[in-house]
């Protein structure tokens, strides 16, 4: 058992160190989200299982706060309402549980972020596809090669691992880094991100 625990820790440290390569992309996504908030947009997040918990965690950091006392930021997790989820799954299909909500809610100027370790869950893929059709900007927090979900993501942050636990751990790190930037921006300690030029 000690050898197994040591392996987990070693793999975690290696994945965290490799996250340095994702820092420019993480900054881009953070700036994108801050620009959306500044323009009156909303961040919608979702996932399944542990990834649903990551999506909810992200929303909590934004509506509550990360480290600073500042205004709440508009974020909604689409997989936290059991009535809506079970209604759609029962009357339509589980694959529609996110897409139907995205179709109803997401608009141009909004950001829709999916958390998934495989990128293959039909409801996650459909949610991103519908978000893009609605004109929202899409973000994928994934792992490995991103799976089919990658095709519908405008911004892709792939944890440098193929192991589900490591991917989820790196998603937590990424959402904390983004929360730090959004926190500083909303508290007025960091200037507003500029629109990219081309």
Give the helices and strands, then pairings.
Blueprint: H1 2-18, H2 23-38, E1 43-46, H3 50-63, E2 75-77, H4 82-91, H5 99-105, E3 111-115, H6 122-133, E4 137-143, E5 155-159, H7 164-186
Parallel strand pairs: 1-2, 1-3, 3-4, 4-5
Q: Can you offer a commentary on this structure?
A:
- With 198 residues, the protein is α/β, with parallel strands linked by helices.
- The protein has seven helices and five strands; from the N terminus they run ααβαβααβαββα.
- A five-stranded parallel sheet has the order 2-1-3-4-5.
- Helix 3 links the parallel strand 1 and strand 2.
Q: What is the ordering of alpha helices and beta strands?
A: HHEHEHHEHEEH
As a percent range, the share of strand residues is: 5-15%
Distance between the termini: 52 Å
Structural class: alpha/beta
Strand arrangement, major sheet: 2-1-3-4-5
The low-confidence runs, each spanning 5 or more residues with pLDDT under 50, are: none
**Average pLDDT metric:** 96
Instruction: Please count the helical segments.
Output: 7
Characterize the main sheet. Answer: 5 strands, parallel
Number of strands: 5
Shape designation: globular
Features:
198 residues, alpha/beta, five-stranded parallel sheet, 7 helices, 5 strands, globular
Give a quick rundown of the structure.
It is built from seven helices and five strands. The chain has 198 residues and is α/β, with parallel strands linked by helices.
């Amino acid at each position: 058992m000690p050898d197994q625990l040591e392996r987990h820790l070693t793999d975690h440290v290696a994945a965290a160190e490799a996250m340095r390569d994702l820092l420019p992309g993480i900054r881009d996504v953070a700036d994108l989200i801050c620009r959306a908030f500044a323009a009156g947009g909303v961040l919608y997040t979702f996932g399944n299982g542990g990834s649903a918990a990551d999506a909810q965690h992200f929303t909590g950091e934004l509506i509550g706060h990360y480290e600073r006392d500042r205004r709440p930021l508009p974020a909604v997790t689409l997989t936290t309402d059991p009535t809506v989820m079970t209604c759609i799954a029962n009357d339509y299909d589980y694959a529609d549980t996110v897409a139907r909500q995205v179709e109803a809610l997401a608009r141009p100027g909004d950001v829709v972020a999916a958390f998934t370790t495989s990128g293959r869950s039909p409801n996650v893929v459909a949610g991103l596809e519908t978000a893009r059709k609605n004109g929202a900007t899409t973000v994928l927090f994934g792992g490995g090669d991103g799976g089919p979900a990658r095709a519908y993501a405008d911004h892709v942050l792939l944890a440098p691992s193929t192991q589900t636990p490591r991917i989820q751990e790196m998603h937590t790190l990424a959402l904390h880094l983004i929360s730090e930037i959004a926190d500083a921006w909303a508290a007025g300690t960091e200037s507003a991100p500029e629109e990219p030029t081309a």
